[in-house]
Amino acid sequence: MSTKPCAIVTGAAAGLGHAIVTALLTKGYRVLLADKNRTVRRHAETLALRMDVTSERDWNKCVALVKSRWGRLDALVHNAAYCQPIPLEKSSVVYWNKTLSTNLVACGLGTIHCRELLRNTGQSPAIVNISSGQSSHPIPGHAAYVASKGGLEALTRSLARELGPQIRVNAVVAGAMGSKRLYRQLTRRQLADIRRRTILQRIADPSEVANVVVFLLSAKASFVTGACWVVDGGKTIYQEC
Q1: Which of 156, 209, 230, 237 could be joined to 173 by an S-S link, Cβ 3.0–4.6 Å?
Q2: Residues lower than pLDDT 70 in the chain
Q3: CATH fold for domain 6-227
């Protein structure tokens, strides 16, 4: 069994997932990078697995790999997400199912498959789910995404109640972060509006959100569970005068 703490991070290939992996490695973790796209084993302390987070078969493979290579699991980060803005009247059942399956159902599925390894081998095991500020401040065209993230926050509280006291479960409610996807999906006007309506007047670097994720996974947050930590530069409480 590994003497180092071990983590699984979904959606690990880029953006916030990449930043979370980097932050965990600096804290001495071994990390399995799970992503639907091809991931590169970037470090001696990482494993890479191409997986569909909505697939039970893939979750079985993921857990089996961690168990065989490291023999323990201390942390699980549900970061994988699907967000494709579509006007409500043009959205389909297929679109809704894909969004909810990826952003909400997969988090429950991953928890089901990882809970035994977390409970039996982890030292102060913890789960962090990545939510979004859109759960309370939606942008038009994102109804399915907003619903999935609101549901994820409710799921976080439910899992904390059900898995405690052995496993802590929290969520990070992330604000806008600099990424290729953000700049591709939002217009310059929308980006400027986000900055203007944020107390800190800027968009976050993914590493700033990743640092909060790592804190919630650590023993320093040993009395924190069932919480949804807002990391949005003050956007949630911003009010125009």
Answers
A1: 230
A2: 39-42, 138, 141, 239-241
A3: Rossmann fold (3.40.50)
**Burial group, residue 189, by CB count within 10 angstroms (0-12, 13-18, 19+):** exposed
At 65 the pLDDT is 97
Residues 6 or more apart in contact with residue 2 via CB below 8 angstroms: 30, 70, 71, 72
Enzyme catalytic residues = 145
Which two three-digit tokens encode residue 49?
């697995």
Place of tokens 């043009």: 90
Q: Residues 201-228: pLDDT tens digits?
A: 888 999 999 999 999 999 999 999 999 9
Question: Looking at residue 179, what DSSP letter applies?
Answer: -
Structural contact between residues 170 and 229, judged by C-beta atoms closer than 8 angstroms: yes
| pTM score of the predicted model | 0.92
| Cα 218 to Cα 168: distance, rounded to the nearest angstrom | 10
**pLDDT at residue number 241:** 42
| Pairwise CA distance, residues 97 & 2, whole Å | 38
In whole angstroms, what separates CA 26 from the centre of its chain? Answer: 19
The 3 state secondary structure assigned to 197-211 is: CCCCCCCECHHHHHH
pLDDT of amino acid 2: 77
- Cβ atoms 151, 101 nearer than 8 A: no
Domain positions in the chain are: 6-227
